[in-house]
Write a structure and sequence with these properties.
The termini are far apart. With 862 residues, the chain is of the alpha+beta class. It has 19 helices and 32 strands. Helices cover 29% and strands 26% of the residues. This is PAS domain S-box protein.
C-alpha cells in the first residue's frame, strides 16, 4: 500500500502513548514502514516520504532491550525500549508500544511480526536483512515517545495506584460539583458510610455541621485554585454521630493541561487520637496553670471546674472538704464519711447540683471499688442506653440527659480534699474512656495538692489574723480623755497581716497615750516585729517617760533586736519573700524627714507617740520618721501639727524632739500611717492634701468617729493598696474644772491631818463619802512618805473621772519600793496598804521630781 502521512493533534497530556501526544508508525509483517505521523517526524526528524517503504530496522541505532521488552509483553501488546537514529545525527532513546492492527493466519498472539527482535549486541547492519522477517498477513501500530516521558508516566501511574490501594492515608477525588468520584474507602470504616462512595455527596452520610466545614474547604480550593494543607476538622456520620473522627485534610485542585478544573483531590488522615492527646495535654496545661494560683478554696474549686468544662465535660461539680475552709486536719480517705461543701458547678444542667450544698463523700460509694475507698476514679458510660439491669449510681444521673459520667476524688497525702464529678450530655461527644479518666486523675492530684496548700495557708492565716487581732486594741474606745475609732487595711487582702499597729494606752491621772507605728515589710515576720515593738511601747509607757525619751528607748531596743536577729528575720525580707519591700524610709520620711545615719539593714520602723492630758488639754508628742498627725479643729478647719520628726527606729543619727501644744476641746486628732498618703507613684504632699480635704468632709465633729474614719479610708482607690493603711482618730475632751483639785503642802508632819481633812471635805462635796476612809489612809501614807524621805514642798491632787485618782508629788527622784515588813517591824507597810486599798498604783518621774499615784474605782451610782 502507499505511504500514508498520519497527523496527530498536539497536546500536553503526560500520557506517553496517547495518539495525540506520541509518534506513530504502521509497520507491516515484513517490517516495512507503511505509515508515519508528524509526531514521529518531530521526534526523529525523518519525513514520511523518507521513511515509508523502508525497513524499520534501518532506524535502529542499537539493539532493542529484549529482556525489558519481553517483560512488558501482555497478550498481543508489547512494550519496549530502543535507541533510534535521528535524521540530523545522534541517537534518541525511545519507549515504544506495538499493537497489532491485522493478524495474519499464522501469527501467534503475543509475538511481534516476523522473528523476535535482535538481542543486545545483534543489531542489524544498515541495509541488511529486516528484523521483521515474519510471515505476512498483518500490520502493527508502533507508538513511540521519549523514554524519559514513558518512565515518568509509569512512576506516576504506579503512585496513583498505590495511593488508592493503601489504607494509611485517605484519598478522595471530587468532581466540580463536589461529588465523590473515587476514594480508598477502607479509611472510613464508620457506621453509615456507603460501601460504594462514587457519585455520593458528603451530605449523604456525614453530619450536617461537619459537611458544611468540609465543603467550604473544597469549594474554596475550587474557586481559588490554591491548595490547603493541615486543615483539621471533625467528621461524624449521620447514623453514629458520637463515633466521629478528627481528620487532617490536604486539598488541591485537579486541572487539565489547558487549565480547566476537573475537581478537587483530598488527602486525609485520621488524627483522632493525636487530637485527643493534644486536647488532654492542653487541658492538663490549663489546669496546672490555674491551680495553685489562688489561696482561696472557693476560687480553687471554681478554677478546677473552669479548666474541665467545657474542654473535657459538659457539666462539672467540685466538692471541697470542710477542713480546707477551716484550716483543720482532713480525714484519711479510708474513713467512711467526709463532709464536703459544694464549691463550684459549671456547665448546663447544674441548677440541681447547686442546690446540694453539703453532700457526703460516702454518697459517692458504689461498692468496694468506689473512689473514697481506692483513691481511684469511677467511670460510668452508656447512661443514655441504660434500660434494664443494675441502675446506675445516683450521682451519675444527677444531670438531665447525661450520657457518660465520671467521679474522681481529690486525694493527697492519703487524705481527702474533695471530689470532682464530670458529666457529658452533648449528643456529639463520645463517652468518657480510660484516657479521660487518667487525665482527670492527674488533674485531681494537682488540685488536691493545691487545696492542701489552701488548707495549710488557711490555718496559718487564721493564726496570723488571730495574732494580729490580739495585738491591736478594739477599733472603738471611750475614755475620760478621748474617744477613738480606728480602721486597719492590710496591703495584702489575702494575707491580712502586716507591720502596722496602733494603740490607745491609758496612763495615770486620766491621761492617755496614742500610738501609731509601721514596721517595714509585710506578713508574719513584720507582724512579729510589730508585736515586739507594741509590747515594748506599752512597757515603756507604764514608766511614763516623755515621748522623746520613750522613742529613744525604743530605738535602742530596735538596734539590739537587729544585732541579735538574722537579716530579714523581722521584716520578711528573705529570699523567698516576694512581698517584702526594701528597708528604707517611708515616702513621707524621704521628703520631710532628716537625713538618717547608717542603718544596719535588717530592722526598721516608724512610730508616732503622743500623750494627751485632759486636765490641761496639752498634748506632748514625738515622731520617729512618722508623718505628723492632722487636727480637725472645732471650726471645721484641718491643719497638720508642726513638729520635728526624728529618724526612723533602727536608723539612728539624730535625737528625737518633743513637741507640746494645746488641743481645743472637741477637736479631732488623726494619726495614720503613710499608706493612707501614698497612691502608687503620687506625690506625698498631694496625698496629705487629699487627706486634709477628706478629713474636713468627713463630719467627724458631729457624727460617730468610726463612721467618719471608714468614710475617709473608703476614698482610697479600689485597686490593690501599695502599702498597709492604718487610721486612728481621737476626739479630745477636757475635764471639767470641778473634777480636779490640788493643794500645796509644806514638809511638816502636822500637815498629814490637814491633808486627810481636805480630802474628806472634797470627797463629801463630790458625793463620794464611801471612799473617804480608804482615801484618807492612802493620802496619809503617801504624804507621810513624801515628807519623811523627800522633804518639801509636797503637792496633793485629786482627779475624778471614771476612777478616783490621788496624786502626791515631791522633789525627790528616789524610787518608791513596796516590801513586806516583818511582824516585829513598826514601819514599812505604807505602800503595801496603798496597793491593797487601790485598784492600781504607780509612780512617774518629772523634771521637778516624782509623782506617786493611786486609783480607786468609783462606787456604783445609786
Amino acid at each position: 500500500m502507499g505511504c500514508v502521512r498520519m497527523r496527530s493533534a498536539l497536546g500536553g497530556d503526560d500520557y506517553p502513548f496517547a495518539v495525540y501526544n506520541t509518534g506513530a508508525a504502521v509497520v507491516d509483517a515484513a517490517g516495512t514502514v507503511v505509515a508515519w505521523t508528524s509526531a514521529a517526524e518531530e521526534c526523529l526528524g525523518h519525513r514520511a516520504e523518507e521513511v515509508c517503504g523502508r525497513p524499520v530496522a534501518e532506524l535502529l541505532a542499537g539493539p532493542i532491550h529484549r529482556d525489558e521488552t519481553l517483560g512488558r509483553r501482555t497478550d498481543r501488546i508489547w512494550d519496549g525500549r530502543a535507541p533510534l537514529r535521528h535524521r540530523e545525527g545522534g541517537v534518541v532513546e525511545l519507549g515504544f508500544r506495538v499493537v497489532p492492527l491485522q493478524e495474519g493466519t499464522d501469527a501467534q498472539p503475543g509475538t511481534p511480526p516476523g522473528d523476535a527482535p535482535a538481542a543486545d549486541g545483534d543489531a542489524p547492519e544498515p541495509g541488511g536483512p529486516s528484523p521483521w522477517p515474519g510471515r505476512h498477513g498483518g500490520r502493527y501500530l508502533v507508538l513511540c515517545a521519549p523514554y524519559e516521558l514513558v518512565t515518568r508516566w509509569r512512576q506516576e501511574h504506579a503512585l496513583a495506584g498505590e495511593l488508592f490501594e493503601q489504607n494509611r492515608i485517605g484519598l478522595a477525588l471530587f468532581d466540580a460539583e463536589l461529588r465523590l468520584m473515587r476514594t480508598n474507602t477502607p479509611l472510613l470504616p464508620y457506621t453509615g458510610v456507603p460501601d460504594r462512595l462514587a457519585g455520593h455527596r458528603l451530605g449523604d452520610f456525614l453530619w450536617a455541621q461537619d459537611v458544611t466545614a468540609a465543603e467550604e474547604l473544597l469549594r474554596r480550593v475550587l474557586e481559588t485554585g490554591e491548595p490547603v494543607v493541615n486543615f483539621t476538622t471533625r467528621v461524624r456520620t449521620v447514623d453514629d454521630p458520637r463515633s466521629g473522627a478528627m481528620l487532617r485534610i490536604m486539598a488541591f485542585p485537579l486541572q487539565e493541561p489547558s487549565g480547566r478544573l476537573l475537581g478537587v483531590a483530598a488527602l486525609y488522615q485520621d488524627v483522632t487520637e493525636e487530637h485527643r492527646s493534644r486536647e488532654r495535654i492542653a487541658v492538663l496545661h490549663r489546669a496546672t496553670a490555674v491551680l495553685g494560683g489562688s489561696l482561696s478554696a472557693q476560687q480553687t474549686g471554681e478554677d478546677l471546674a473552669a479548666a474541665l468544662a467545657p474542654a473535657l465535660a459538659d457539666t462539672v461539680a467540685v466538692d471541697v472538704a470542710e477542713p480546707v475552709f477551716t484550716g483543720g486536719e482532713p480525714v484519711p480517705h479510708r474513713l467512711e464519711r467526709t463532709a464536703l461543701r459544694r464549691t463550684a458547678v459549671t456547665g448546663e444542667g447544674g441548677d440541681a447540683l447547686r442546690a446540694n450544698l453539703v453532700p457526703l463523700l460516702s454518697d459517692l460509694r458504689d461498692g468496694p471499688h468506689s473512689p473514697p475507698t481506692t483513691g481511684l476514679g469511677t467511670l460510668v458510660t452508656g447512661l443514655d442506653l441504660v434500660a434494664v439491669g443494675d441502675p446506675p449510681p445516683e450521682w451519675a444521673i444527677a444531670v438531665p440527659g447525661v450520657r457518660s459520667a465520671m467521679s474522681v476524688p481529690l486525694i493527697t497525702r492519703d487524705t481527702v480534699m474533695g471530689n470532682v464529678t464530670l458529666w457529658r450530655t452533648a449528643a456529639g461527644r463520645p463517652a468518657f474512656d480510660g484516657h479521660d479518666l487518667e487525665l482527670v486523675q492527674e488533674i485531681a492530684s494537682r488540685a488536691a495538692l493545691a487545696l492542701d496548700n489552701v488548707r495549710r495557708y488557711t490555718r496559718e492565716h487564721l493564726a496570723a489574723v488571730s495574732l494580729q487581732r490580739s495585738l491591736l486594741p478594739p477599733a472603738i474606745s471611750d475614755t475620760a480623755a478621748v474617744r477613738t475609732a480606728s480602721v486597719y487595711l492590710p496591703a495584702d487582702p489575702v494575707g491580712g497581716v502586716s507591720g502596722d499597729w496602733y494603740d490607745v494606752i491609758p496612763l495615770s491621772s486620766a491621761r492617755v497615750a496614742l500610738v501609731v507605728g509601721d514596721v517595714v515589710g509585710h506578713g508574719l515576720p513584720a507582724t512579729a516585729a510589730m508585736a515586739r515593738l507594741r509590747t515594748a511601747v506599752r512597757t515603756l509607757a507604764d514608766l511614763d517617760p516623755d515621748p522623746d525619751e520613750l522613742l529613744a528607748h525604743l530605738d535602742d531596743l530596735v538596734h539590739q533586736l537587729a544585732m541579735t536577729g538574722e537579716p530579714g528575720e523581722h521584716t520578711g525580707q528573705t529570699e523567698a519573700a516576694d512581698d517584702a519591700r526594701p528597708l528604707e524610709l517611708s515616702a513621707w520620711g524621704r521628703e520631710h524627714g532628716p537625713a538618717p545615719g547608717d542603718a544596719d539593714g535588717s530592722y526598721a520602723a516608724t512610730c508616732l507617740y503622743a500623750v494627751y492630758d485632759p486636765v490641761n488639754g496639752r498634748c506632748s508628742l514625738a515622731s520617729a520618721g512618722h508623718p505628723p498627725p492632722a487636727l480637725l479643729d472645732v471650726d471645721g478647719s484641718v491643719r497638720y501639727l508642726d513638729m520635728s520628726p526624728g529618724p526612723p527606729l533602727g536608723v539612728g543619727g539624730l535625737p528625737f524632739e518633743k513637741t507640746v501644744m494645746e488641743l481645743p476641746p472637741g477637736s479631732v486628732l488623726a494619726l495614720y500611717t503613710d499608706g493612707l498618703l501614698e497612691r502608687g507613684a503620687g506625690d506625698v504632699d498631694e496625698g496629705m492634701e487629699r487627706l486634709r480635704k477628706r478629713l474636713m468632709q468627713s463630719g467627724a465633729l458631729n457624727r460617730p468617729l468610726h463612721d467618719a474614719a471608714r468614710e475617709i479610708v473608703a476614698a482610697l482607690p479600689p485597686a490593690r493598696l501599695p502599702d498597709d493603711v492604718t487610721l486612728l482618730v481621737a476626739g479630745v475632751r477636757r475635764l471639767p474644772a470641778g473634777d480636779t483639785v490640788w493643794w500645796a503642802l509644806t514638809a511638816d508632819p502636822a500637815v498629814v491631818a490637814q491633808a486627810r481633812e481636805l480630802v474628806s471635805t472634797q470627797l463629801t462635796e463630790w458625793g463620794l463619802e464611801a471612799l473617804v476612809f480608804t482615801t484618807e489612809l492612802v493620802v496619809s501614807e503617801l504624804v507621810t512618805n513624801a515628807i519623811r524621805y523627800a522633804g518639801g514642798p509636797v503637792q496633793l491632787r485629786l482627779i475624778r473621772t471614771d476612777v478616783l485618782t490621788c496624786e502626791v508629788s515631791d522633789p525627790s527622784s528616789s524610787q518608791p519600793r513596796m516590801r513586806r515588813a516583818r511582824v516585829t517591824e513598826e514601819g514599812g507597810r505604807g505602800l503595801y496598804l496603798v496597793a491593797q486599798l487601790s485598784t492600781r498604783w504607780g509612780s512617774r518621774y518629772t523634771r521637778a521630781g516624782k509623782t506617786i499615784w493611786a486609783e480607786q474605782a468609783l462606787p456604783p451610782a445609786v
